[in-house]
Design a protein that fits this description.
The protein has 111 residues and is α+β, with helices and mostly antiparallel strands. It contains two helices and six strands, in the order E-E-E-E-E-H-E-H.
Length: 111
């Protein structure tokens, strides 16, 4: 029983939110299957977190660089409006999604 019961919300035909008491998983579907996912550990007494933390981000290799993770990130920002941070344990590829490229003009990311 690793996963707690979840409520599933269809945001659109191709994005779903799976929410439990401790986390939210944001899933992007393409070609009838989940191809990208971002997980947020939720601020709560159960998790002992004082912020909502993006702790997992993954897109299947053949679906990368198509904007799917960015689309999920926009959905996350609309859904979780406060106390949202990115975990410092993401891989280098995961960090690129959340940190602006320093070789380009700087852009501010608001959470």
């Amino acid at each position: 029983n690793y996963y707690l019961p979840e409520k599933v919300q269809n945001v659109s035909d191709n994005i779903k939110i799976c929410k439990s008491a401790t986390s939210c998983r944001f899933l992007k579907y393409a070609d009838g299957k989940p191809v990208s996912m971002i997980q947020v550990a939720l601020k709560s007494n159960a998790t002992r977190l004082d912020k909502n933390i993006i702790n997992l981000a993954y897109t299947l290799p053949e679906y990368r660089n198509k904007g799917f993770a960015n689309e999920l990130l926009k959905t996350i920002k609309k859904t979780i409006k406060t106390h949202l941070v990115v975990a410092n344990t993401l891989t280098e590829d995961g960090e690129k999604l959340f940190k602006p490229d320093t070789s380009k003009p700087k852009q501010k990311m608001k959470f």
